[in-house]
Amino acid sequence: MDSAAPGLTDRTDETVTSQILDLFTSLAGAVDWSFDHWYLLALAVAVTWCVGEAVLRRLAERASAERMALELVPVRHFDPGVEEIFRRGVQLARASTSMPWWAPRRAKTVQVRLRADGSSPLRYRIEGPAGGERLLSITPFGPDVTVKRARPIVDKPRQHTVRAEFILRGKLTSPLRDVPLAPDPLQPLIDAVSDLRTELGDLAEIRLDIQRAPKWALRARRLQLMSAARRKERREAQRAARWLRQDAGGIEDSMGWQLQQLMLKDKPGGAAAGRRLVMPPVPRRVEPAEVLGKLTDDDHLVRVQLLVMCASNTEGRAQARLAQLQAAFDVFGGRSRWAMRGWRLGPWRVGADQWPSRRGFERRWNLGHCHPPRANWVRLEELTGLLKPPTVHCRMPLLAGDLPNFVHGDPELLLQGIYRGPDGRERLVATYAEETLFEVGVGKAGGGKTERALAQAIGWAHAGGGLMFVDPHRDSWPRATTFLAHETLMPRIALIDLNGLGTSPRVSSWNPLGMHHGQAAHEVVEAIADAYSSALGWDDATAPRAITILTAALAVLVAVNETACQAGRPKDQATIFHVRALLTDAVFRKAALAAVSGRLDDETRSWWQVVFPTLPPDAFAVVLNPISRLAANPVTRAFLGQPVGVYNIRAAMDSRMIVWVCPGGNGPTDRLLTALLARDLLRAVRSRRDTREEERVPFRPYFDELITLTGASPETIAAMFEDFRKYKCQVHGMTQLLARLPTPVRLSLVQNASTLATTAGSRSAIAPITAEWGDSPSPDRVATMERFEHYVSMNVHGRRVGPVQLRGPHLDKVFAAQARPQKVRALEQAALANAGALPLRQVTELVGGQLERVTAFVCELAPASADSVSAREYE
Hints:
By secondary structure, the chain is of the alpha+beta class.
């Protein structure tokens, strides 16, 4: 047994050795076969990769089909903090993983889309997995941002399209520049698309894909960076050691060193003491925080993919737009920056627009897949500027979709001014007439507010609209006639000129008490009494007796006129000047009361029977004094003293008339006349209650010099700004100082103004307007504007646009094609004829005999028996 064991062991060892040799021989043969048939292995690897890629693409396409889109619309004063934006970034990163388990990583992404196509300066959309909709719908921005489900966007093909992918260049571990939130980090991008023109097919879109960083990829990158840093440190240590040895060798070869050695040679231990010991430097310890930089921590680290596409139907515009966006991204650059992927060969650039990158770019663009470059690692703090919609600190451009272009003759548009775009192009802009309910223009004298109102009124008149322009100074009429002197407009224009200019002035007529137009008697009485009270400062506390006397007198005269019209004798109507005869002439009073006794209510008859006889004669002075002042002016007396007045503002509204009213001035008498006209306008507009809303014709009163007009009738003007919208009557007012307007008027017009405009002026005068805009722009900026420049805020499609800076339209330029100076004389004659204007001398004779005619009518109307009864009752 002992002798056989060694032999058995030797045979076993030989067997094992033989097997090992056979294994090595087989491996060598396999390697040799593989070397000879390498193409088969490459083919197998390629087929495996292709099959795997096809499966991944199919799964990714299926996952992408379940994506959703949200559009974020911020309010004008949206001003988020850094923490709110950071929380939004955390939501986006978390939502990117809300995918089925089988979805490939390329589909697990959330996409921020910044799009400019002319519909808005920059549309902000979020697209991501359908499972993340709940998470993304509730934002940390609160009510300042409206989140709504967005529909898919289908673009029409453009003739010219350029594409680009941006990657991070520079030091991989260095962050992007920390861009402050004021001004908005999106401002460079918005400026880059501010001159986009929809009519040329311009389009620009930026897509930022955010994907949570895979742990294995992050570990691999950290390991790579640490290994590279250690290798670099070892090389530096080796280089330092070489230089140290070279320095030591150089010293030992020097003459000084040799002499020192000779001097120390004879001394005991001298040569040994002089020897130089060279210690090589030790590699410095590599600090992970210093080497890894922003990749040190896993928290809030994401990978991003930045794609840009620009298109246009005009050659060169898409390329220029891409260059502008590339420059805009430079704002985010620091030690790390965004750079366009690809390389340049002379005049050619090889990038996402060329093979083979273009196909992959389009697949990622269309499906929302994310293949971020290896260098695109960022922290959420670096993306602060792109994780939110535009804020209050962003200056938004005015696009054609925001404010439409003015088209001459379009009844749906109302001219506002001239807008100069970022590219230097100018265009006439307008608002929609249906949405422009009330307009207020403020500015210093000569600043252009009246010129702008005239341009708007002339444009509205040429579009077929009706209007009333009240100008106490009359300067607007000769300025506008050149552009209104058209054959089609002359039948619609009426001039009420109370200035009495020329040797033979012509005056129109208006009987505030006239009933020949079918007005309601109580409305006429109320309108005149309220106008008197407003102009003279009467109220129930300070002048109750004067209001009562005037109201009772008006009730009798209106009843007389109503009787005359029903009898077919409108020329026998009384006027406002007959109030004096009614109060002071016993014969006329008795006849009038007897004639209309059946038309008066019991309270009015009782007042005339019981209270009137007890009044002292001096009680009538407060009522008669204003009427006497009106009668003392021949023009005013002629205008108000005719029995059948032609002026009828209700008929002018319904027939789209263009009425120009020029009061004679702004004195006490003129203020009373203006108050009567304003109150009559309020009565006429409210009388449109008898017309269905859809049948009411739009009408626009323009009030120049609101300070003068509101001084006569503040409550009436305030009521206009509060009530007229219901009756399709839109008021436009101009004033130099908002602070000088009565408080009710100022509060009403600012509260209800759909258009608010101001020219340059003093800082104190402009401050109330800029305060309505949140002092953006500031009063200092507005105060230093050039002449004819305006800041205007408007309503378009239910939202406020502006304030934007516009240049006031100059009539000679904007309406140069409509100028007809040779027909101005014909227009003036037609306007006076349409207003029923007659020579002042002729009207004066007619007015002088009106009292006798009215007296004869009431005496004829009252029977003898009634007259005797009246005499006994009213003595």
